[in-house]
From TrEMBL:
Pfam families: Hepsin-SRCR, Trypsin. GO terms for molecular function: serine-type endopeptidase activity; serine-type exopeptidase activity. It comes from the Eukaryota. GO terms for cellular component: membrane. Keywords: Disulfide bond, Glycoprotein, Hydrolase, Membrane, Protease, Serine protease, Signal, Transmembrane, Transmembrane helix. InterPro entries: Hepsin-SRCR_dom, Peptidase_S1_PA, Peptidase_S1_PA_chymotrypsin, Peptidase_S1A, SRCR, SRCR-like_dom_sf, Trypsin_dom, TRYPSIN_HIS. One of its GO terms (biological process) is proteolysis. The lineage of its organism: Eukaryota, Metazoa, Chordata, Craniata, Vertebrata. This is Peptidase S1 domain-containing protein.
Length: 461
């Protein structure tokens, strides 16, 4: 505003001659032009500074480790009080610390961990954190259980997390979307019941898929009839590259209220995980997506990509080829405005789309991914920020798509995977599987037992 005031004074004082007649010269025109340019640059600079500050506030720098096996794999945690990085001193809690650290960074599992020494004379020899083992627990940031120490042995924790969020191709039911290219979104899967596409889902590890709870109503709970199709932009068995896997277990959030009472109009906690019957073999066309970093917050206006085979138009048919569309995240206050969703958006949701509509997820995209590129980490990766949940119509003005906010459910996802993995190892097969030998009622009862009793322990407050 200061520059605009200066510009106004120049116009008044220097554009008026002795006789009171305004006149312009090339120099004065150039001066005005330069002032415009400088003011615009300052405006852009202010926006960039604000954006960078908000980006840095996401906490993505708290914990770091390389995912390249040929790189330095020593785990580092940022000391916010001293404004410096510290290595993790080796302890008896190395395995638990490795597991929790990978989860905190958005990696689902640990490939390997080891102990390494800091070289003599290294500047890093006095930069250590030690762990309070009693405070170390899943679902809690590891910084809360660490304290600066000398680490007299100089032995530090090194680890390799399962990589994720990578695409073999770098090019970029979606209404207003475009056909995706083979391998462009290798974590996308089609969830099919009796051979019919019902929902999308996202690969997060070699055994686990994330989707939406509402994809598993009571009529679709015979797990032996579910199949996961992956590895292709086509969701038909006849196309090459398509792989088909059976589902071992489905777990949805026990506090997804429409399953408690169909009359409740609250789609909070619309999330589910599926355990595959067999582990995946990753290829260029089958890859896991990263989960959000613990503490990662959404950025208003950030562009993300939603993908799926849903209806191409509200009254359209399912897409034959995977569709993709880029849409911006919308501020919660805006999306809760009376002319948008009138306070229906809870803290476990977020909106993404354009005010005028035209591009959106639609029927059949449910459970699929909303991903965004993480450019802050040392290597660019895609993170699963949202799960397609609900919306009013498709691509309507001021009625954007609504997504489950995955960052709110990281502890729940972690707990579900650990509890079910333990159940699968310890329980008898008839207790934990929905095999084709069982009759429909038995399958349904077992499904209710596993889904209800397990998720009751996993409610996210």
């Amino acid at each position: 505003m200061f520059l605009w005031c200066v510009l106004f004074l120049l116009c008044v004082l220097s554009f008026t001659g002795n006789a009171g007649v305004t006149f312009l010269t090339p120099c004065r025109v150039a001066g005005v032009f330069i002032l415009h340019i400088v003011d615009f640059c300052l405006f852009v600079f202010q926006i960039l500074v604000t954006f960078c500050i908000r980006e840095e506030d996401t906490g993505l720098y708290d914990v770091q480790v390389n995912s390249n096996p040929s790189s330095d794999l020593r785990l580092r945690v940022f000391d916010s009080a001293e404004r410096r990085w510290r290595h993790l001193c080796s302890s008896e809690a190395n395995q638990l610390l490795a597991n929790i650290s990978c989860e905190e960074m958005g990696f689902v599992s640990v490939v390997n961990y080891s102990v390494s020494s800091i070289p003599e004379g290294s500047n890093d020899r006095e930069e250590f954190f030690c762990v309070n083992e009693k405070e170390l627990t899943y679902g809690k940031k590891i910084k809360e259980s660490l304290y600066p120490c000398d680490c007299e042995t100089g032995q530090v924790l090194s680890l390799l997390c399962q990589d994720c969020g990578r695409r073999s191709l770098t090019e970029d039911r979606i209404v207003g979307g475009v056909d995706a290219r083979q391998g462009s979104w290798p974590w996308q899967v089609s969830l099919q019941y009796d051979g019919v596409h019902q929902c999308g889902g996202s690969i997060i590890s070699d055994r686990w898929i994330v989707s939406a709870a509402h994809c598993f109503p009571e009529r679709n709970r015979q797990v032996s009839r579910w199949r996961v199709l992956l590895g292709s932009i086509y969701n038909k068995l006849t196309h090459k590259n398509v792989r088909v896997l059976e589902v071992k277990t489905v777990v949805y959030h026990s506090s997804y209220l429409p399953f408690v009472d169909p009359n409740i109009d609250d789609n909070s906690r619309d999330i589910a995980v599926l355990a595959l019957a067999q582990p995946l073999h990753f290829t260029d066309y089958i890859q896991p997506v990263c989960l959000p970093h613990y503490g990662q917050r959404l950025i208003d206006g950030q562009m993300g990509t939603v993908t799926g085979w849903g209806n191409v138009g509200y009254y359209g048919t399912l897409a034959d080829v995977l569709q993709e569309a880029n849409v911006p995240i919308i501020n919660d206050a805006v999306c809760n405005a009376p002319d948008y969703y009138d306070n229906q958006i809870t803290t476990s949701m977020f909106c993404a789309g354009f005010e005028k509509g035209g591009t959106d997820a639609c029927q059949g995209d449910s459970g699929g991914p909303f991903v965004a590129e993480d450019s802050l980490s040392k290597a660019s990766r895609y993170r699963l920020l949202g799960v397609v949940s609900w919306g009013t119509g498709c691509a309507m003005a001021k009625k954007p798509g609504v997504y489950t906010r995955v960052s709110r459910f990281l502890p729940w996802i972690s707990s579900a995977m650990r509890v079910i993995t333990k159940e699968l190892r310890l329980a008898t097969p008839s207790h934990i599987t929905y095999s084709s030998q069982n009759d429909a009622l038995h399958c349904q009862l077992r499904a209710y037992y596993l889904l209800r009793t397990t998720t009751t322990l996993l409610v996210d407050n």
